[in-house]
Amino acid sequence: MNQVRAKKRLGQHFLTDMEVARRIVSSLPLEAVNCVLEVGPGTGVLTQYLIENKDITFKAVELDGEAATYLRRRFPQLNLIEADFLKLDLSDIFPQSFSIIGNFPYNISSQIFFRLLDHKNKIPLLVGMLQKEVAQRIAAPAGSRTYGILSVFLQAYYDIEYLFTVDEHVFDPPPKVKSAVVRLTRNNVEKLECNEQLFRTVVKTAFNQRRKTMRNSLKSLVGENAELTNDTIFNLRPEQLDVQAFVALTNKIEQANTDKCAKN
Fold this sequence. Notes:
Elements: H1 3-10, E1 14-15, H2 18-26, E2 35-39, H3 47-50, E3 57-62, H4 65-74, E4 79-82, H5 90-93, E5 99-103, H6 109-118, E6 125-131, H7 132-139, H8 149-157, E7 158-166, E8 171-172, E9 179-186, H9 196-207, H10 214-217, H11 219-222, H12 226-229, H13 243-263
Parallel strand pairs: 2-3, 2-5, 3-4, 5-6
Antiparallel strand pairs: 1-8, 6-9, 7-9
Helix pairs in contact: 6-8, 9-13
């Protein structure tokens, strides 16, 4: 199967601009990483540049059987894992820390980022191309209309850079939307200064009713606790709270619940 046939048979959007491919790979500081996992290599547009680097341990994971067959023929030396990245035991791939790079499928890019969070202490760096709107959302600061659940979760543990926009015409076939490349670098936060499980619940509950103030959106968590909800933070809407504000809010809610249990 040649590359043109591979594109047609797989029915996906493949990057055709090699300069963009080089730019994506160069966005991953290879001198700072020893192990790299490419997610969804497709026809190997990024792979061809990554596999040249002899200073890294490089592996790729591809779900599509036709793409995997093509990649094995094109890159016989490639350490290719034919599997679903979302279901893989990542500890089996690299027992040590590793970085991720890829042209992520639009329909699972958010799931890839949630998987990243599950393994945040093993993955210090990610460079990925994804739908522009999703890239803008995860990089959005507090106060932005696009700031949301994934923004807060990722920004709690990673520094996020929106690197550049990729025009739809450099793909075959062209998608209906633009793409963008982002870089996530692990920050120094080993653990949030709050109950992390409650933090996730607070953030999700707040953004599920993002047009309401925190006083109304968090009623299921705080009830009618007037002493708690009189705090000015409850006058805000969720997009107005940065990570540290959500941490502080989580601690307030946990303390209020502890006090309530003590009284009962």
